[in-house]
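Entry 14: structure prediction run for Thioredoxin domain-containing protein. Input pasted below.
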Amino acid sequence: MTSGGQAVGAASRRAGVVARTRRVVIDFTASGCGPSRFIAPVFVEFAKKYPHVFFLKVDVDEFKEVAAEYQIEAMATFHFIKNGVKVELIISAKKDELATKVALYAAQTAPSASS
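Run finished. Output tokens:
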């Protein structure tokens, strides 16, 4: 069993490695946040629909260091990462707005039919 600090460090390193090598959508959430609870099942559906995009959920109460690193100040916050660089930010739990952005982002990363 690891200590909380080691778990946070490992989670941050893993998120960093994935974000540098793939396109990632990070959902910064909090268990006590109504908008976060509302959007959670929608985010899970995105992960199923777009398997070529890495969807990562970070509980800001559990991983305070990661939340601080990404300067999270409100829920629900979504970071879109491409090759380790934030390319888009949404601070909202508006399902339609998020669905549009995710679909556009996923289309940019879709595997070609020839691969």
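Notes: The chain has four helices and four strands. Will compare against the previous run tomorrow.
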